[in-house]
User: Fold Amidohydrolase 3 domain-containing protein from Arenicella xantha.
Amino acid sequence: MNKYLIALSIAIFSIGAKAESKVTLVSNATVYTVDSEQPTADAFAYQNGKFIAVGKHADLRNAYPDAMPLDLDGATVVPGIIDAHGHLLGLGQSLMFADLMGTNNKAEIIALLQARAKDLVDGQWLLGRGWDQNDWPVKELPTAADLDAAFPDRPVWLERVDGHANWGNSKAMSFANKDLSGDWQPEGGEIVRNAKGQASGVFVDNAVALIQQQVPAATEAELTEALTLAMQKTASVGLTAMHDAGTSLQVWKLLESLNQQDKLTVRVYAMADGANEMLSYLCDNGASIDPAARLTARAVKLYSDGALGSRGAALLSDYSDDPSNMGLLIESEDTLKKHATRAEACGLQVNIHAIGDRGNRVTLNVLEASNTKDNPGRHRIEHSQIVEATDFKRFKELGLIASVQPTHATSDMYWAEDRVGPQRIQGAYAWQTFIEAGVPLALGSDFPVERAAPLPGFYAAVARQDAKGWPEKGWYADQALTREQALHGFTLGAAYAAFQEDQLGSIEVGKRADFVVLSKDIMQIPVAEILDTKILGTYIDGTAVFQAQP
Assistant:
């Protein structure tokens, strides 16, 4: 692909302020348009940030003889990839904190933390993210004592991979402004305690705030740095847009500033972070709908339950591997209904996190009760992970979108059936069941819970296997998506979930010229080779925001 990379460098160098109106003709490519009327092409042209022609190279060359050529040297092109569920600030902060993803034991974590601590001043909080006890030899929750020997005087506060639990040392717990021992629990959360009733060091869901509120707040400069790092990452992995599942008012203002400075290198569809300041801002000022689709806020993100890995997902009956535990509702059904009704009245899309079958049922009840005729709808259930068999049809009846993350299935498959048992697992990660029920799918990753990379998500969707090809025939392979379904979910399906299908999601005349150049044809190559595919270029409005080095 060196020919393409050299051509791209020349093209970028050639584009100046006066060249914006010049036509660019992209050719010598296998183009998957996600346009049902013209699924493939070998060339397309764009001008002023929009596609103006799609078809055969000979026809387009005759139509635009003076166009600036961009020969892709046989590469594959897909529409701009959209991650329908991610956390932009969280991604950036994960790049600034200790990265614990993929660690296999506590000793490995301690070593990483000790290396990170060398860059900190005395007394500074040591923050990290990504631990998962399910990947350890002994799959038990860690304790403060595991950290205390290495860090007796420095507060250590580590977010679990799913973002629904934190692990701290004794120093971190000492900052809590109330006694953590006893038998009391915060509503919608759990302080994990030992046999003596003392906090062991792990805090689940709403209990996290007991320590988190003592961590010094990041400055605006630090937040901006995190957002910038995150956008560099998203461009490099082929994302042209992402749906930010929980945007605070402070972060929204920073995103607006970056956009005004033309520094927003990924499209952001923001969901207000619960019933907080951002929701009030949108209710007071109205939805912020950008005609250029670069920065939009017209939704709220609410929570019904926790996560499966930390046993906080709310189930209709006990966990199969933890009798007497049914998980947690982060908010009561009545409270959730109140927040959803308020957002509905403000004309906003309501997107609710639900993982367990009880969490999903409560969410369905809430969205059914809060529905108003004046709201544009397209409400979403984020994750839609474990659904009781009779509830799938309710998604369709209520006009809901299932926002799912394929890599959650392949990350969880080693232990998920132990959690929920052989019966409930039939309704877990059940993507084809949703499609058969007529429910639209929007695909994402939930980064930084999973790696920010859509190609592993595409692979997980179609293979239902890990990177080593296990299990051989796929995990509950009947629920795997076809390649066409997976590509649609990461493009037009995600655009639809953000009311942006008229501008984004496919390579069609009149839409914004967002596209991604790939080193391999992911629609035709053996499934195992999908993970070897490289991102060669990421384009937004026809401008490269990332290019691989020759």
